[in-house]
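Board notes, transcribed. Complex of a protein with zinc ion.
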Amino acid sequence: MKQAIGKAYELAREQYAALGVDTEKALERLDRIAISLHCWQGDDVGGFETAEGLSGGGIQATGQYPGKARTADELRMDLDEAFRMIPGRHRLNLHSIYADNPGRKVERDRLTPGLFSAWLDWARARGIGMDFNPSFFSHPKASDGFTLSHRDQGIRKFWVDHGIACRRIAASFGKALGSPAVNNVWIPDGYKDVPADRLGPRLRLKESLDEIFAERLDRAHVLDSVEGKLFGIGSESYVVGSHEFYLAYAVANRKLVCLDAGHYHPTETIADKISSVLTQLDGLLLHVSRGVRWDSDHVVVLSDDLRSIAEELVRGNYLERVHIGLDYFDASLNRVAAWVIGSRNMLKALLLALLEPAARLQAAEAEGDFTTRLALLEESKSLPMGAVWDYHCARKGVPVGAEWLADIKQYENKVLAARG
Ligand code: RNT
Ligand code: ZN
């Protein structure tokens, strides 16, 4: 480790200690947090069902940056490169359209764990956990914008069977890797324009979910999660799976809710929802993302929003109950860098939260001394968190500061550029 990094850390440690904060403890806690990296940033949510990749169903990546992964091997290689730049041991979040079965098309209602064995081997070799997602989009049977709430019984059944198959695949991952896989259901179903019947599709969705979750699977292997949304491209006026729908469903059926940071009104943030829903739910999945105007999927930056989310996780002691996943897809920049930037920012936000002078803040609040609370919160914003973070990266053997960028550029020139 460079001497300057150690020196800066020692000074920072003293400064935090003066406020009652133990930096070693904070780093030790940070190191036990696993972020679930979303495979779909690596190829613009294309998947490997067809050579061209697919899009549609309200999922839209924009940009033409060269070098996206075209095969599962390439995607794994890119993920390895990203993981080398991120301190700690993390997870992989896989979508069902990333089945690794070159040359043999298996319909989505027929997917089996065996089709993902290369992914499993890869995860096992790295000692990382996996999460999973059925893919209810980018498919001819989803072309009219409806899946699990479809009025056609045959189509609805197809998607229910897909949901059942994916849940088993997720459970097989959880069992094999010794860590439960979160299996997250998100569907694009909805109407562009004002519907005449809001209830019918919701009743069908409820029925479909009941069918998907009917099979009893061990919670030590799979955790079911449901993700709502406010609106999507093509579902501006009505979304069947709204937040309220899924929150009610999760409470009634002991499921996890997925809160996606880009799925609410523009001035509404998910931070305040965490302690609200966890008074009654067992757990939560987060899709950490960044909304910009109508788009909900920009690369995660170290914003106040992100910091508030991390603060809530730490303050509420929720780190065991909340599964942190990333969810964004930007095709206008280096996709490996996009993973690295978002993951490092998530970790930085968590570190900032772990370094908060929590005891002092809470004492001030309990005494009704809101002046001290505000003053301390504001002063702690300029504490030397960067020195602690750099020290952490150096100690974990990953690049310090923007050093990782040179590595990624080299990877781009050597590996990505050759993909044409
Ligand atoms: C879409 C949801 C969903 C997807 C992924 C690919 O609005 O956020 O989570 O982004 O499943
Ligand atoms: Zn999401």
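The pocket of zinc ion (ligand 2) is lined by residues 186, 227, 260, 287, 327 (CB under 6 Å). The CA atoms of residues 91 and 129 lie 5 Å apart.
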